[in-house]
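A common beginner's mistake is to predict each chain separately and then try to dock the pieces by hand. The better habit, illustrated here, is to supply every component at once so that their relative placement is modeled jointly.
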Amino acid sequence: MSATAARSALGHLPDHRTGCVAWRWLRGLKILLPFVALVAAWWAIYLSADFSPQVLVSPLAVWRAFVHLATYGVMAEYASTSLRMIGLAAVLSLLVGVPIGFAVGVNRYAAHALEGFLRFLQGISGIAWLPLAIIWFGFTHTTTLIIVIYTLIVPIIFNTMVGVRAVPETYTLALRSLGASRLRLVKDVYLPGALPSIVVGLRLGMGYGWRALIAAEMLVRKGGLGDLIFGARTFGQIDRIITGMIAIGCLYVVVDRLIVQPIENLTVARWGVLRQ
Amino acid sequence: MSMASASERSPMRRALDRLVWRLLPLTPFALVLVAWVVYWAVVRPPPATLPAVQDVVVAMWELAAKGELATHVAASLWRLLLGVLLGVITGVIGGFIVGLNRPIAEFLSPLIVFFNAISGIVWLPLVIGWLGIGTALAVFLIWNTVFFIVFQNTVLGVQLVPQVYEQGVQALGGGRWETIRTVTLPGALPYILTGLRSGLGFGWRALIAAELVGATTGLGQMIFGATEYHRSDIIIGGCLLIGIIAIAMDRWLLLPIERRTIERWGLVFDARKEE
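With all components supplied together, the output reads:
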């Protein structure tokens, strides 16, 4: 998205390499500037009163904690645990959720029957099932995974269903009158028609799922960034908590902007017309 | 049933169809219930793993009779109310300030993207140290969650109000404040309410998560406390209650408000109608 914006803004400029680089630097600075202001404000607050290290630490201390965690590979370990978990949950949820969404979406009655149930499940957040999951599966990765899948799969099923329902009936009728099989219908009409909606569901689910993952990791305490920040709480290591929070935010933004959003843009650009 | 009979359905038949259509959403609930009863009758799992349906009902009834249930529900709803109120007030005010000033919006947008990514439960370990365990902590987490959703929707709504309308009022001599009051606010209202509706849903999730560790009362604490004694009847009952409250709030509180606003002030966009 930002690439196209930059390109269109550069449209009237000669396409020099130097111009491009300078432009990118400028954009980068503009993104960093508010963070510089924030850190300055934080530092000012820190210096203005005598905070105990249990309450607030300086940005420098957070930087040191980050360097410490990064050099010993601890940060990479915790972050990769979380990323692996959310990736696995996303893949499994898509594999299970999309077919269910299709099966339900093509039938008016089934869709109507399931809608309320899905809304109800969405009302019980995944994290509310955590106590039961702990009883059933113990303090294990399985527990975390199940909570995250539960959180992810409901919006995926729901949006697949809505996407399939939104495909105009004329398209299916047209293909059917030409003798297309059911599989053909799914492949050529329902899947492309519903894809933008499925991707929106995935993106929404990732938003819920990432939070559920962090919360579950806090309570299950078997690795992951949630475990990192909650564990640091026990020892009052504010520097580690803030480092972990920054990592959680950055990773989410990176996953959302570099993986999920490009997929969304691609599908909408490629198949989005069907939505209207 | 042939097409001929469909065209000349009796009123009786149509009423029956409508009844079936209205009862249809209950079938998944009924299926789960039947599966649960049958599974329990056949496998007889230990009650700590999966209690019988009647045990859940009895457990909830006992909690309700002792008045404990009401305490937990009241604590949760009170926190939700406070957090959502704070989130909506700050979100709308912030959204207007940012939405009406493009330079500020551009300057702040990276910060908003970042803090939105860590909104809610991620703050828990840090804020426990500041506010301690209890209502203040839960309210902070709900506020933090609701704020960003309401804020972003407000900014969107404010920015999408066609400038022609604002210019129209200004051309007739309306001041800045009057323009906001008569044009921007009603124009942005449908978006604000959509934000409120999804914000309440997110806030409810954040609350339950916060209460699991950061409170001594509330529904989240009720189910997490039950884990220690392996009281899965209380956990399941609590989860169902959490879902029922969420649905009830959405159906009877927010949906009607949203509908009315969209009917009254909605711009041309379609509010996707249910079938």
